Amino acid sequence: MLILVCILVGLSPAAAATNSEQSPFYFPSNTTWFKEAKFGLFMHWGPISQWGTEISFPLVCTKFPCTVATAGPSSKVINNVTELKAHRQSYADLAKTFNPTKFDPVAMAKLAKSVGIKYLVFTAEHCDGFANFKTTISPYNIMNTPYKQDTFGMLVQAFRKEGLRVGAYYCPSTWNSDDYWQPDALTSFGPVCRPNYVTASDPERWERYLKYLLGQLTEIAHQYSPDVVWIDCDETLNTLDTRVESLGQIFREANPEVVMQIRGRGGWEDYLETPDKQTTLANSIMGLSMMTAGVHFEVPDTLANGPWAYSPHVSYQSAGAVIGKLVSLTAKGGNYLLNLGPGPDGLWPADGVGVLNEVADWMSTNGESIEGTVEQWPHDFTSDPQYGASRRHFVMASLNSTLILCTQLSCLQLVLMGRRLRLLRNTLPLCSRQ
User: Fold this and answer.
1) In the chain, pLDDT over 70 holds for what percent of residues?
2) What does the alpha-carbon distance between residue 304 and residue 145 come to, in Å, rounded to a whole number?
3) 184, 268, 409, 423: most buried, per Cβ within 10 A?
4) By C-alpha distance, which of 216, 276, 263 is closest to 235?
5) Across residues 286-304, what is the average pLDDT?
6) 13/30 Cα distance (integer angstroms)
7) What is the pTM of this model?
8) 340 close to 44: Cβ distance less than 8 angstroms
9) With 0-12 CB in 10 A as exposed, 13-18 as middle and 19+ as buried, what is 363?
10) Could you read off the pLDDT of 3-62 as tens digits, one per residue?
11) What is the CA radius of gyration of the chain?
12) Strand order in the sheet with 402-406
């Protein structure tokens, strides 16, 4: 049986200097809090929760016929412009009935804290263009729904009251904009994460779009001072310049400890964001090359076995699976960003809450095996068989000399007493069965 052993040890202050000091990334940043956080909460939400399907992607149609998601687990085939316009208009009209009266950010923050989560990343605006925050730049926002309350602002207040950090996800690819999918976003074909025209051929239209994009991000900086700026769906600097990086100083003036990343840009981030749901690539820092070894990284994942947005038709990861991934990523010096989207009433799904409560129970006993630890460094990925893909055992040592030994079926908590290990407690089940 192949055994994977991951040891986290305490380092002296000099040895524990952050790897960001040697980072090739463009902006300097105080990322100490982010590296120490280890566990984050992702939250995708918006009017689309009323359909119970993936956020934004039901808008995508690149040619006829195209198959698009509709309410529930259903889909339909779009054959012409008339059908496409009706479908996209139905999506947009969801804002008119979005009224999550049971939304309770205070309860969410308290649960997140009990789970060991240290920061939230919330979809201030996803690619569908719906703003979950108070904005003067677009009427398509939460203040113009029946709910009429700033959901992002409410989360910022509640999570910070619990001592947690709060970040803003923003998609610079806005699929309901006539200046992105021209000439009419309701009827035009539109690719994922790209405008449907060459921006250099229509600079006036592109400048109009950038005024919208950069204006909203500036609002977010000034109104919420986010601790994380999570930019998705960007393109390369030379072929499609959204100029998002120009806002770096604005965000850092609003919050000197902010961490920022533009996904896919390269060379601008404070940390490395892996592709979605890459938690199974446990060797070589999630399968990344040696050249990125030592750069702090984050892996986004969904608690639901399905879309990022709420769906009533999905199952959920077990608590053991979540804990196993958190252990594996912590041992390699990365953060685990776990997503759970609320439903149309504003509540998290009961099954997802149940899993989080199980993780909270584990953290109440074994949280010191995650919190206050640092990865063993340097890693030897090329020759050390400990870092194989078949995971069976984890050994983690926190700074107070307590050890957690996890197998597929159980975990033992032991304390170092001289040269002997004393068993403190045995808890079941804990690690992912893979």
Assistant:
1) 72
2) 27
3) 268
4) 263
5) 67
6) 16
7) 0.82
8) no
9) buried
10) 233 333 332 222 223 333 333 334 455 778 998 999 999 999 999 999 999 999 999 999
11) 22
12) 394-397, 402-406, 411-417, 420-427
